[in-house]
Amino acid sequence: MVSAQAATSVRSFVAPDTVVGAIEQRHRLGDTAIYLSGGTDLGVVMRRHLVTPEHLIDLSRIDELRTLERVDGTIVIGSAVTHRTIELSGLFVGHAEALREACATVGSVQTRNVGTLGGNLCNASPAADTAPVLLALGAVVEIAGPDGRRLLPIDDFFVGYRRTALAPGEILTSIRIPVPDAPRGSAFLKLGRRKAMEISIASVTVRLDLASDGTIAAAGVGLGSVAATPVRSASAERVLTGSPPGPATWDAAAHAAVGDCSPIDDVRATQEYRAAMVPVLVARAAGIAFGRARSNA
Amino acid sequence: MSHPLRLTVNDGEYLVIAAAGAYLLDVLRDDLGLQGTKEACAEGECGSCTVLIDGEPVDSCIYFAAQATGKRITTVEGLGRNGAHPVQRAFAALGAVQCGFCTPGFVVAAAALLQRSPNPGVDEIREALAGNLCRCTGYNNIVAAVLAAAGSQDGDA
Amino acid sequence: MTAPAPDTVGRSVGRLDGGAKVTGRYEYGVDASRPGMLWARLARSPHAHARILSVDTTAALAVPGVRVVLTGADTLGYLASRYVRDEPLLALDRVRYPGEPVAAVAADTQEAAEAACRLVRVEYEPLPVISSVEEALADDATVIHPDWASYWVSPIIRRPGGNVVSHASLRRGDTAALFESADHVFEDTFEVPMVHQASLEGRVAIAEVDDAGVVHVWSSHQYPFGLRQDISDILHIPLGKIRVTVTGVGGGFGGKLYAGAEPYCIILAQRTGRPVKLRYTREEEMIATSPRMGATVRLRTAVAADGTLLAREGWIDYDSGAYSESSPGVVSVGLLTLAGPYRWQALSIDTRAIYTNKAGCGSYRAPGAPQAVFAGESQLDRIARELGIDPLRLRLHNAVRDGDLGPTGQVLNNVSLVETLQAAADRIDWDSAGAGHLRGKGLSCTWWTTTGMPSSAYVRMDEDGTFVLITGATEIGTGAVTAGVAQICAGELGIDPADLKIVSADTGTTPYDFGAQGSRTLVQAGNAAIAAAEDLKSQMFDIAAAKLGCQAEELEMSDGEIRHTNDPELSLSVSDVARLGGTRGGLLGRGSYEQPPTPYDADSVQGAMIGAFNIPSFATHACEVSVDGATGEVTLDRYVVAQDVGRVVNPRYCEGQVTGGAVQGIGQAMFEEIIHRGGHVMNPNFTDYKLPTLSDVPHIETILVEVPSDSGPYGAKGVGEQAIIGPPAAIANAVRDATGHPIQRLPITAERVWQSLRGPGTAS
Questions:
Q1: C701-726 pLDDT tens trace
Q2: Contacts of A11 in chain B (CB under 8 A)
Q3: How many distinct helices (H) and strands (E) make up chain C?
Q4: Fewest C-beta in 10 Å: which of B75, C156, C260, C674?
Q5: How many Å lie between the alpha carbon of B6 and the closest alpha carbon of chain C?
Q6: Does the complex come out with an ipTM higher than 0.90?
Q7: Nearest-CA distance from A181 to chain C in Å?
């Protein structure tokens, strides 16, 4: 019997073992080719016939994209590292707890075993769990293309609704999270209809770096599901930076964050509810992040 | 466009001719006749199609067959082939099975859990199996069966 | 049938299909195939309401591998829906909901069939869309079925016309006088959206037609004999030329009680001469198959100052969708469940099913009840709160007891409501000090029926002494057949249930059964199996008595031996009897059971297909929640169900019905909702239609109460449906207890609770 419900648009499936090889394949196959990392997002939209590529280029067998290591002051995560690998890694303790938390809430164990950090970012859903985390952590992404490699702050990566700064043929190769010497704490909170297997109604990440005098030396605030793209709340970060830690500061930051989001109504929640939840989650995440920063000191 | 594909399923080697865009679930069911793995949502939300890839649970409905080449695939038919796996025995004995449509996905996911964590607590079981939906049992007996299979004494029953 | 129970009853023996299910060998409808089989697929309407101007199948037929494409013109006169034949197999002149089938394709592969469906060209002229009951009832509303007068209609149905499918009413006592004189009158309105059975295996069938025109259908179905009748009625095929064989069923919950995929398979098989399989995708399940009706429930209740319930007026408008399906039967259930298990001096209740431009609604576990009970039990808590009476005491004060009359005048016996109330309240520590800020407890009480109607069984003894139970009953997963009825039958035969073989649910080989519906299988098919076993035993005893030279009445059977009651030495093995049977085909015992209808005051109801609850049973749900005051998130900390099951046959599967039903009810209470916009389903997948996961529900604490019935096997009552009814009200009442704010619409999402916190509330 012919297999039943294959993605009929697909004519070829290739799995190169180097980044250069993948870029060459993409050049050869043209614009009907699409990169596949884990496929947990792509598989869904292809099942629904919303995306109909003719060629799939599987990036998950490229060793370089599967590395996870700390190099001096930077954690380098290959784009094909799975959510599950990050969830179970000890590398993020004391530096980027929020990323571990976010990865642990992506779908189910089954999803996390296959889905990758790079795939989550390139899918560019405003609800992508890891995107606001990386915004808050000030990550930098490395991109490889036909003309070589470039580094880009993640703030410049999400350019519109489900659109990224990747040019045709480019590959997101790694995500780099700078690790400061100062005590840092971060926290990720997500609101959904259920307690598991959820696409967020709203998600918030707060990252706090403490100065030696106990004030907040630097802060990052990322918001998910409240705008066309994952967004960073510069207003909340301004409130936090230089302020003394505590509930008054968290509340001020929380209210500042509201101005940086522009949520919509959909089947998961109303605009009104999303807007109201942002300050609640920002204040809570800030409190948790601060507690972690202190214990990381 | 069909292509030859070499797959290792339940320790056996198979050569199948499959569409380039074939999902692993459909190749298992339709080309290899391994119909124990089920489709219910076809978008990675219910776990009915769970198989193990190199020992870790994966939703085979949104996993391309070509992604599985060179990896070990284990389906419900390949669990405990010298008699039923302890998880299978516990599911049958303790009322964890009603209509049974979700059962293959559950027993495969639970077997992987016990491989990683031989004596999981209730919370760990609930978290590890949250990606498997059951519409019949209300889950009580599923948790009880996994605990029993683990030989754990700290049930919530 | 309250003879002493054999020792197999009351034990958690394993189910006979358990081994096949855990190893993946059990064959479901999706797994079945026939040689030379084609794949069917349906082309569906993108419009909620439109006139069809033309249909062109040329391009679809040109797809390689496509064997036939049928349209409404090929299926003239093929009308479905059991009580009002209002649903064409394929739309002819108009479509009435998004997803309505307009063409049926059979092709060599699923891909070809799907491609052809996309190429069926239909020209539509959109009509005004009725997207709610309110719009449907407007004076100038577009009539969705202008040709109603031409339909066959069940004679019980009453309707005023327009977009009303059917209207049932209940009148007992002088409500007007009681409302006039009552100390208090409470009035509330509640909203319940549609929810879906969401069985993990969707609808799937195969049909094959032989040269003589005999149709053989394999289907994942709950009621093969009903399906055979449906097929006969819809396609005008004589009953005797149809055989229905039930495959493994991957969940039913009422969603597989009517003809669904089967008629399409049959007409395509008739045209092609090939077996045809049709399997609905999850999206098709969600947009185009018989969910639970949504409802608007308004009720007024007259209460005395001491909390005595006096009279209730109620109105339920159920949203039937575009077709009647099972809604005419369900509206009568609304009469009984909106009254609830309480003593009333007067009742006046009107329930209607209303056409809208959504998929036609069907039966889902305890059809019609959760909508009514969410309203009635929520209002009881409001009454208790405002009168300063504890909700438990208010319920105990008004609960029906033995000898009371039900809402339509049936005499209630073996009533167990008070027992369940006390058991649930004790378990949840109801009287312990207030649970604390933003924590709360809630109760709800339910009553439900054990559907009657015929069941029949054969028990065959093969030539080696093996016993085979041949039953028309269907195992849909509950364990009612492969555990419960098997235990009963094996017990009566004195054998281990594991040694019993079962043949079931095939109209070609098994005797009639009214199907796996209405919580009836264990009770009715169990009684039939007892009768068949007794018939077989009497035949065996006659043979043994002749051989042993004694009277048949002096014999008993156990452990594979037939012995003289006073002289155990005088015995014969069952296998010897089998050989002496002389037929080499063994012996055949036959049994059937049909409960007499429950008497009630027929003058009190009009337009009701169901006027009373047969072998009614009772339950109380109790839960404890905590609420996040800032986000509205509700955590279900504890959930307790105390349910009367009459007599426990298999504790593990009996509890499994209660826990499974409760979690489905929790799903409806907290997560599940088919979201419509202009008739279109906005969440036709499991990503956005939220079923409860293991992380969302606590361990369900179950208390099985046993107040035996007069007619169930050893006192058993129906179990399967009841536990789904209680959760919405129990949880809403707990949330109100926690926050002081009422919840009057399901599901109880964080956002809805958050909104309620900003609205008017009462002191917590």
A1: 999 999 999 999 999 999 999 999 99
A2: 1, 20
A3: 18, 31
A4: C156
A5: 23
A6: yes
A7: 35
Per-residue tokens: C146: 């202008």
Q: Tell whether B73 and B110 lie within a shared domain.
A: no
Residues of C at the A interface, defined by Cβ within 8 angstroms: 109-111, 115, 630-631, 633, 671, 675, 682-683, 687-688, 690, 692-696, 749-751, 754-755
Cβ–Cβ below 8 Å for A195 and C754: no
Beta carbons of A193 and C109 less than 8 Å apart: no
Q: Do C693 and A4 touch (CB under 8 A)?
A: no
In a domain, B157, yes or no: no
Alpha helices, DSSP H, located in chain B: 24-26, 86-93, 103-116, 122-128, 140-150
Sheet containing strand C439-448, strands side by side: C439-448, C617-627, C634-644, C700-705
Per-residue pLDDT of C290-323, as tens digits, reads 999 999 999 999 999 999 999 999 999 999 999 9
**What is the count of residue pairs from A and C with beta carbons less than 8 Å apart?**
51
* pLDDT recorded at residue C760: 72
% chain C with pLDDT above 70: 98
Q: What pLDDT does C343 receive? A: 98
Among residues A274, A239, A242, A238, which one has the least CA distance to residue A258?
Answer: A274
pLDDT tens, position by position, C387-433: 999 999 999 999 999 999 999 999 999 999 999 999 999 999 999 86
Choosing among 3.30.365.10, 1.10.3720.10, 3.20.20.140, 3.40.630.10, the CATH entry for C452-593 is: 3.30.365.10
- Taking an 8 Å cut-off on Cβ atoms, the answer to whether B20 and A36 are in contact is no
Q: Encoding tokens for residue C150?
A: 């031409």
pLDDT at A5: 67
Say what the pLDDT of residue C433 is.
Answer: 65
Query: Are the Cβ atoms of B22 and A43 closer than 8 angstroms?
Result: no
What is the residue extent of each domain of chain C?
Answer: 32-127+203-249+256-288, 294-449+610-757, 452-593
**Residue where a domain stops, chosen among B31, B57, B78:** B78
Residue ranges of chain A whose pLDDT lies below 70: 1-5
CB within 8 Å: B95 and C653: yes
C9 dihedral zone (left: phi>0; alpha: psi -120 to 50; beta): beta
Do B15 and B50 sit in the same domain of this protein?
yes
Give the C-alpha separation, C510 to C617, whole Å: 30
pLDDT of C764 reads: 42
Start-to-end CA distance of chain A, whole Å, equals 62
C478 contacts in chain B (CB < 8 Å): 98, 136
Asked whether residue B70 falls in the same domain as residue B92, the answer is no
Of A4, A9, A40, the CB nearest to B44: A40
> Does C221 score more than 60 pLDDT?
yes
Q: Is B26 on the interface with A (CB under 8 A)?
A: yes
- Kindly state which CATH superfamily the domain C32-127+203-249+256-288 is placed in: Aldehyde oxidase/xanthine dehydrogenase, a/b hammerhead (3.90.1170.50)
Q: Do B132 and A108 touch (CB under 8 A)?
A: yes
CATH number of the A65-178 domain: 3.30.465.10
Distance from CA of A51 to the nearest CA of B (A): 12
Whether B58 sits inside 8 A of A15 (CB atoms) is: no
Pick the residue of A46, A273, A284 with the most C CBs within 10 A to test the interface with C by mutation.
A273
| Domain shared by B16 and B52, yes or no | yes
Residue span of the structural domain in which B65 resides: 2-78
**Closest-CA distance of chain C to residue B133, Å:** 6
A partners (3+ CB pairs within 8 A) are B, C
pLDDT of C762: 53
Q: What is the CATH number of domain C294-449+610-757?
A: 3.30.365.10
3 state DSSP class of A138: coil
Mean pLDDT value of segment C558-569? 90
Q: Which residues of chain B register pLDDT less than 50? A: 152-157
Average pLDDT, rounded, for chain C: 96
DSSP tag of C24:
T
Q: Do B27 and B71 reside in the same domain of the chain?
A: yes
Q: Which CATH architecture has domain A184-194+201-296?
A: 2-Layer Sandwich (3.30)
Q: Is residue B54 part of a domain?
A: yes
C34 burial via Cβ count (<10 Å: 0-12, 13-18, 19+)? middle
Q: 3-state DSSP call for residue B146?
A: helix
Q: Is B99 part of the contact surface with chain C (CB cutoff 8 Å)?
A: yes
Angle between helices C417-427 and C391-398 (to 10 degrees): 160
